[in-house]
Amino acid sequence: MSKHFLFALSLSLLFGCSKPANDAGTPPPSTASVAALNCASATLSSTATAGVAFTATGTLPYSGGNAASYGPGVAVASTGVTGLSATLQGGTLVSGSGALTYTITGTPASEGVAQFSVSFGGQSCSFSLTVGADGNFTQYGTPFAGVPDRPDAAIYQVNMRAFSGPGSFSAVTARLDSIKALGINVIYLMPIYPVGVHRGVNSPYAVRDYRAVNPEFGSLADLRTLVDGAHSRGMSVILDWVANHTAWDHPWLAQHTDWYQTDNTGVIIHPPGTNWTDVAQLNFNSAAMRVAMIRSMKYWVYTANIDGFRFDYSDGPPASFWRQAVDSLRAITTHKLILLAEGDRADHYSAGFDYTFGFNFYGRLRNIFSGGAVGSGLDAVNATEYQGATADQQVVRYTSNHDINGSDGTPLELFGGQAGSMAAFVVAAYMKGVPMVYNGQEVGLPYRLTFPFTGQDIDWTLNPLLKEEYKRILSYRAASAALRRGALTNYSNSNIAAFTRVLGAERVFVVANLRNSAQVLNLPAELQNSTWTNAMTGASLSLTTQVPLMAYGYLVLRN
């Protein structure tokens, strides 16, 4: 568990006695009166930290009391830092000097100064509460120094429930060597949190507690062991984060109903435009909710020493939230964090994400394998998916993931068996972006892992030769700076994806037949009569004016 260090609380007075026109928060009693309120001497019983639920008792000295009784007031909302309120407790004035008692509650939306303007007995004043910065968590372990740069990532998605019979962290830890040998340097864990039960469908994306481990997978200690094992093998670990909504039995629904979106009758709703009735839509107009959400993200960076997040349904929350979240996470200077948006909005780049999701590239591959032309269509998708990208921001490219596998089919179903699936993967891994592999696709799993992923597990003994082919493809990408960072030139025709990646003196030529029949690529003049080396076999190959390819055949050439 984590340990917070709360920042010291300071009180300052903005004082001015006057006859108020009215105090909507605390109406003056009809008989009670004081000569002065002394906000400069106000005291509170505890300290306040941004994003942390706060309750305190405050005392506000007065002079010139007239010994009258008075009832409790209504809540006075804070200004400046929002999310807090001060409520006068009922009592009886003393004759002369005494103190009023206020209860201050809420969750400060940010660090800074929260001001409370109060009035009583014909006088008014303001007192200010300084809210400390987000409390520091205790760092578990040593922040990982081997997090890859954006273009160098090769991501592996782990679906814990389907990964093994036990469906546990320890089962993943036991296969870390195998994942590493595949050519992976980033492991992405699907949601690890307790799953909602109320109105639930056993979805791991219905999160009941952002700061707990699902006991189905093991303990926090087991998660830490997995992360430590990955780090010791040179791999980063990122967690799936569901920011748009929570399970219906998340504690926030009982504690902060204003943190959720409602219909015009005040009833909390599920995400609009979806059939996700097992989750409740969060209200991103709530500054306090945003801070609490981001604080929970930070919890895992420190408590489990993880290396970033894949943010589920990133196209749901507004860009302003993502900018706030990314800026807050980047402020953790001890960690180099991987931030992946599972979305394709152009504003994800300006929000500061490292990666967006290649929905359109996958869709284009599906179209091609359904008979659509290759041609310039891949160029068009590259232009669309990279619109707004700066520096080395990247798109994650894939031929499978947990959604696709369950709903559309396995790579074998979608891309023409083993041979076609590898031709598709070469294009996804090499053309532009970073590759992602879904657990099980490397062994050519012939059956789907269907929601909620509690059925058939992965048979890791299948198709060892196919797994070796995935290794060769990913290993060569890791060895080739041109494939990771080189300039792209597209030479595709209607049936064959063909392109070069060039960086300095290194040139890679990729040719992949995306048809289940033999095809020929006519070479442009700049590639004719050239000599290359087959990057997979080391054999020399001289090209003339054409490249013939068998059905679903591909070549990766370098010179």
Automatic annotation (TrEMBL):
Keyword field contains DNA repair? no
Query: Domain Glycosyl hydrolase family 13 catalytic: where?
Result: 157-477
Q: Is Mitochondrion tagged as a keyword?
A: no
The lineage's top-level taxon is Bacteria
UniProt keywords (A-Z) are: Signal
Q: What is this protein called?
A: Glycosyl hydrolase family 13 catalytic domain-containing protein
Residues in the signal sequence: 1-23
Looking up SMART domains in the UniProt record yields: Aamy
What taxonomic ancestry is recorded? Bacteria, Pseudomonadati, Bacteroidota, Chitinophagia, Chitinophagales
Pfam name, any one: Alpha-amylase
Specify the species. Answer: Flaviaesturariibacter amylovorans
